[in-house]
Amino acid sequence: MKRFSVVVCAAVMAASSTTLYAADTLSNDQLKEKLAKMLPQANITAVNDIGVSGIREVDVSGEILYISEDGKHLFQGDVYNIEKGMVNLTEKRRNATRKKLMDAVDEKEMISFGDKDAKHTVTVFTDIDCPYCAKLHNEMDQYNAEGIRVQYLFFPRAGVKSPSGDKAISVYCSDDQQKAMTTAKSGGDVGKKSCENPVQKHFDLGQQVGVTGTPAIISEDGQLLPGYIPAKRLSKYLEQ
Question: What does the pLDDT look like over 21-73, one tens digit per residue?
Fold first, then answer.
């Protein structure tokens, strides 16, 4: 989210100081074209109708912004439908985008714990050196007993080129990934290993879907649940 703040400010300043946009209502394609010219450094994926009078949704590589239909105002924030119980329309859109991105990840890149036929599957962005990540992992039997399968992706908070990043690569490159993950999470040494690995890809994906800390749990429908959640509470949430 933060990476777009400067972009948004630049857009608002430009819109207020020039006559770039006409006063007429613009089509989605026209709005996309205008934004692409104003923000050449941003990847404007799409401009969409959202059923709200006067504004359109702007998809910037999965990040959601909004623009007035005359193209004069670009803004950042969540839109709620207050007639239907404070429904966060923006978060629902983020969930859909997040789900699409997560569904594209090959399961072979993940380290999984639990039955493939489990009632629920969550994907967890994890850091080997994160205490609450270790707590979650130490309770894996409880998650599995609740019918929750856990799929791990790596998100070394200090960056891929860090001791935590090195540990993530070593775990991934181990012959027995599950055993190595459990050893590393308990503070054990799995030895220095290297191979072609997706750790950088996982880290980039985490940033793209809004991960700012670990553990970060992604549900099957794309919801982001930040932080450690006990097995029974997570099960209850997933059942809702």
Answer: 445 799 999 999 999 998 888 889 889 998 888 999 998 877 899 999 999 99
Which position among 56, 94, 98, 127 bears the catalytic label? 127
Q: How far apart are CA 226 and CA 173, in angstroms?
A: 27
CATH class of 2-88: alpha beta
The verdict on whether 3 is a catalytic residue reads: no
Q: Catalytic site residue 130?
A: yes
Q: What are the structural domain ranges in the chain?
A: 2-88, 107-239
Of the residues 56, 93, 149, 157, only one is catalytic, namely 157
149 assigned to active site: no
CATH ID of 107-239, from 3.40.50.11540, 3.40.30.10, 3.10.450.50, 3.10.290.10: 3.40.30.10
195 is catalytic: no
Q: Is 136 exposed, middle or buried (0-12, 13-18, 19+ CB in 10 A)?
A: buried
